[in-house]
## 1
Amino acid sequence: MHGEPLGVGVCHCLACQRRTGSVFAALAAFAAPYEVSGTATEYVHVGDQGGRFTFRFCPVCGTSVFHTEEGHEPSPVLVAVGAFADPSFPPPEDSVYDCRRHPWVKLPPGVTTFEKDPT
């Protein structure tokens, strides 16, 4: 990735919970253009509000690496924060699908929450 993220957020929707095998997905958005090297396995998911998301995974280990959403041109790329393996990565600013957040998950102070996707 080049430059700083446009923002960092977490998503608690059931699709992200299933996709990550965790209770939420932590994502950092970066502006286009971006470069991809290597190969990825793709999976397209249609969200609750009709958005089409293309998720890319490592074809060897299955790690969720990044995704894009159709219809947002130029589309930012959303990269899994864990892919950076950097404990000093900035904390989330937003939390979406808070209606699906596990009650024991506590967010950092100042995080803006949305019951669903604010689009």
## 2
Amino acid sequence: MRTILVPVLTFAGFCSAFPEPSRGWRASGPGDARSPCPLLNALANHGYLPHDGRDIERDTIVDALEDAVNLDRPWSDIFFQEALSTVPVANATRFSLHHLSQQNAIEHDASLSRPDVFFSPHQDVFDPAVFAETRSYWPDPVITVRQAAAACAGRVRTANRTNPAFELNRAGAPASLAETAVYILAFGDVGAGTVRRELVEHFFENERLPFELGWEKSKFALTQKHLEDMSGRVAAESDALLGEAAKMGISIDAQRPLVRLEL
């Protein structure tokens, strides 16, 4: 277990076929459930998940994540169990995307594309202003792990400074790192830790898999170990950025202290 410093109080090579014609994209409409997770929203928009985003069973989401982005079934099953924990019904066996808006479960403050719950209850809706801050840390056509970490840390700093109810608990902090790790794993070069910026922007802004930009899903299954390793790389770069700021005498946040969070 490694430790990272963040200012707080308290989701490779490309090589597979394009989707079948039945996997065409259609935007969500009135009555469709959506979530704080742009990947799951994209899967519903493409029809890998039910388009209405409701009553999703284990096999449905496991198959969808494998077919769309080649997540392996054990990792997908873990995610399904986490999703079930947000359903306010005992012994639930299915969930709907709107359930994932429960704060500090899968949803978390300092999202790359959503405002904190303190500012808006609509965690299922992409926010251009929030994402504009995120993308400001990506100056080049290819996003590196360091730039990805800078965006993640930058959003934490902004949320910490502006949200009086800001919190990243023991679930939210790893979820924040995973949000960054997942877009590198799903759309980029896993070994190099890089990803084309246009793919990531297209994905977040449209909640759409970037097939038309030449992306194809990973030729190898992405596992929980890949997530842990990439999250660790993002955390290490965050540590380095904070350390460099401290050496230069730059205050990360004058209002709230730095505390340690474990990944």
